[in-house]
Amino acid sequence: MDKLINDLKVQIIAQLNLQIKPEDIGDDQPLFADGLGLDSIDALELIVLLQQHYKIKLSNAEDGPKVFKSVKTMADYITAHQPKV
Amino acid sequence: MYKNGRSLFENEKIELPEFLIAAYNHFEINYPKFYKMDILSKLGVLAADVLLKDDFKIEDYKAEDVGIVLSNANASLDTDIKYFETVKGIASPALFVYTLPNIVIGEISIRHRLKGENAFFVAEKFDVDFIQQYVSNLFYNNVLQVCICGWVEVLGDKYKTVLYLIEKNKNKKSLDFTKENINKIYENNNG
Amino acid sequence: MKSTVFVAGIGAISAIGNNVAECLTALENEAAGIGDIHHLQTVHRNKLPVAEVKLTNEELALKAGLSSTISRTALLSMVAAKEALDDAAIENISSLRTGFISANSVGGMDKSEDFFAEFLANNTKGKLRNVVNHECGAVTELVSDKLGIKNYITTISTACSSSANAIFLAARLIKQNMLDVVVAGGTDALTKFTLNGFNTLMILDQQLCKPFDENRKGLNLGEGAGYVVLVSEKVAASLKKDVYCELSGYANANDAYHQTASSPEGTGSFLAMTGALEKSGLQPSDIDYINLHGTGTQNNDIAEGTAIKRLFADHYPKMSSTKSFTGHTLGACGGLEAVFSALAIKHSIIYPNLRLETPMVDLPFVPERKLVKNVPVKNVMSNSFGFGGNCSSLIFSKL
Questions:
Q1: Could you say which of 1.10.3470.10, 2.40.10.270, 1.10.1200.10, 3.30.360.10 is the CATH number of the domain covering A2-81?
Q2: Rounded to two decimals, what is the model's pTM?
């Protein structure tokens, strides 16, 4: 799980062009609103990230806020939904 | 980068994307959304920031009285190409958002909270006659009190951005809004 | 100097008809044009509904009198612009100062994207001829050349408000006595570029769209072209046929909120509608019909609805979104909907907003769900709100 969380932080920074280091993102830190200040387009890019890196398709945009609440919730979702190789 | 004929920032050793970030840091712009913008929007926002600082107090005007009129020849083609590459795999929403030339106007408006009339024209060359008449008309009819106008263009490694600020009220430093003056400004800048 | 501009001719082509008469018949018969993809070669066939014009490029080329290798955007433009000019029937037009102001958002993208795919695979392949007319401006020039308009040509590209902006630029040029006649409006063809883009923004409805419905899920993309011929008072007086209406008000503002979303309060929409009313000298209660931007996205409809609630408080006019018929035609929608507005005035009708089952909970009004006939339609407001926060509103008035 720790590796997944760290990988995710690196991937999020790359995908969203953020100017921070992985250490700057708390595992439970809110990604949207006051937390990291991401917006709706960033949310869509995270959906792309899930598909590209983890082969998980989030077809209902309304699930977004729950899944992308923090890096930890993303990691939990991926662990629960990742297709078996 | 020049303002009123004076060079404010130069670096011929680096490529455009790095140059834009270097300029952003040099001018201490401090606006994280800058990093996510495409090249066209970065050019426009950077130029607008430099244009508006120091001599101009935006707080003196109502948001609806400040407008933007821009033009270029290649619309958003530079980003269109980058976006289209992603369509092969998964289309990138962050890139798609910039595949319209007027998004740069949106970014400048968001940054400086400008709500006045705005337009983007696509034309082969900078049309001085048209811009001069069009913008003069906006002032004459009190549609705007201030207008950011100019040319914002990029395609690959070729780019040129020239912005000028037109105000209804004359001040000591202002030039008259004539075709000759606009042409001089446009030609003098080496982009 | 207070002068007026008039709509002397109209032309249109869309998913619901290949000319104005066919479009009007479809509107009156509640016959939408949204369905499966037939012409575009895309992986989204059988998955996403769109509103395609029901003609192949070859058929369009025949109608337009242009080569079928020309971009579909230009072909659509030519068909509609020619219909508008013919409709205006200005006899001495060659002696008048005439302009062509056309808007589009994709330019020749339909051809370029085909070229690009081949070229990426093998850089000796792909017909370069296909990308020659990629620029938005090139599409305009192809059509103006064919129409024989020389005095003034320009292209506006401000996303979904493009052709509304083209129309009111035309009005200004006529009022400033720089031109006598202007064909103004816009065009856009369906492309993989936009279909994939909107899909990745997750604002497409996988079913037929439901503008202003509480359970709306997004928009359906469409294609088409719509133009009006605007003329000065002097030219209007010389015409044998009656003009359709006057363009009495127009305004543009920036929402300054987000690149592709509208502010929840609909500030940009509010400013544009207010400005158009001020320009026309009308009160909100004078508006008989609003042709809504009404794309069917969660965001637009609540933003637009909120702005209307604020501006028209208690005097809500009848309103509807014709995008429930034609889909969202992007750069063409302002022009197409201007044509529909002129027709509404001429025929005293108000179009229905199709597939509205559950009214939006937060709004104190409901768009018309059935066609309304024989009602006074004196003043029509047409809204077009584009990405980049570019918001425009036009008002057309009966003479």
A1: 1.10.1200.10
A2: 0.90
Run of H or E including C109: helix C109-121
CB pair distance less than 8 Å for A52 and B32: no
> Does the beta carbon of C95 lie under 8 angstroms from any beta carbon of chain B?
no
Given 3.40.47.10, 3.40.50.720, 3.40.50.11440, 3.40.190.10, which CATH number is that of C246-397? 3.40.47.10
Which helix (DSSP H) or strand (DSSP E) does residue A2 occupy?
A: helix A2-15
Q: At what angle do helices A40-54 and A71-81 cross, to 10 degrees?
A: 40
Per-residue pLDDT of chain C (399 residues; tens, 9 = 90+): 468 999 999 999 999 999 999 999 999 999 999 999 998 888 888 889 999 999 999 999 999 999 888 899 999 999 999 999 999 999 999 999 999 999 988 777 777 777 767 766 777 766 666 666 666 677 888 899 889 998 888 888 888 999 999 999 999 999 999 999 999 999 999 999 999 999 999 999 999 999 999 999 999 999 999 999 999 999 999 999 999 999 999 999 999 998 888 999 999 999 999 999 999 999 999 999 999 999 999 999 999 999 999 999 988 999 999 999 999 999 999 999 999 999 999 999 999 999 999 999 999 999 999 999 999 999 999 999 988 888 999 999 999
**Residue from B34, B76, B84 whose CB has the most chain C CBs within 10 Å, to mutate:** B84
Pick the residue from chain B with its C-alpha nearest to C191.
Answer: B84
* Beta-strand pair C349-350/C372-373: antiparallel
